[in-house]
Amino acid sequence: MKINIPLTVPNQARxxxxxxxxxxxxxxxxLMLFAGDQKIExxxxxxxxxxxxxxxxxxxxxxxxxxxxQIGVFAAQMxxxxxxxxxxxxxxxLIKLNSKTDLLPTASKDPLSTALNTIEQxxxxxxxxxLSIVGVGYTLYPGSAFEDQMLAEAGRLIYDAHQHGLxxxxxxxxxxxxIKKPKDAQLLAGAAGIAASLGADFVKINYxxxxxxxxxxxxxxxxxxxxxxxxxxxxTEVKKFLKTLQDQIKAGARGNATGRNIHxxxxxxxxxxxxxxxxxxxxxxxxxxxxxxxxxxxxxxxxFFSF
Length: 307
Fold this sequence. Notes:
The protein is of the alpha/beta class. It has one domain: TIM Barrel, CATH 3.20.20.70. The chain contains twelve helices and eight strands. An eight-stranded parallel beta barrel has the order 1-2-3-4-5-6-7-8, surrounded by seven helices. Helix 3 (60-68) packs across helix 11. The protein starts with 13 loop residues before the first helix and ends in a 13-residue tail after the last helix.
């Protein structure tokens, strides 16, 4: 596996960057990101209600899943991690630097989401907590009237993260009153190009409407050396979800970001689902094998490197 080390990573931080990249991707170059940042993004709607396991009512459910399954990284806000990670030190964490609620609809005001923490605070937290913090994440909303503020902040945070050998992952969602088709493939390719221009290591974007191999390839090509990972979206039937993920990987996606399709299940089912996704992303399992893992009928067989 050849790892592209951005030139914003100074010589003294290259070994840290390589270590974090290998840990996050299990030595495969592909990222299986378990998203746990919805406590702010969607408030309690994703964690309590019809069709959602009662296990999901408490945030520790997220950490139990992350610690007992073969994920690459668990992404959440620093405060949530600080309050719950004491007993979950085997997890690779990614600090989500900004978040906003969905209480104010885009129709009322274009979205603006600014950083909750600085890179210096992340570095200090990593040192003091001795957790495996491998990177940071930031959400950007192109099309918003406030995109200039977020673009500038994202650029600074990515640069600062690389200075310390941390990975930088962008969440990019096309949103604002000027955006009529947020899942248009051409616009998503533009979003991937933004991530490349800002120097992100990975970018999480929505899966396009009416996806085809050509559309996916155009998005992935636009990202250059930035790895494209598609959002898992709302809860979907298991095999259908896994088939979509397999199609993405075959098209060249370098991973997947999944939240609700994992954590809304009870603990054992959530662990199985996380392992099934990981088997497709980082172990090149076939669809039937991944489905058996998701159903708990077969254990995940890992060929991962240890770091």
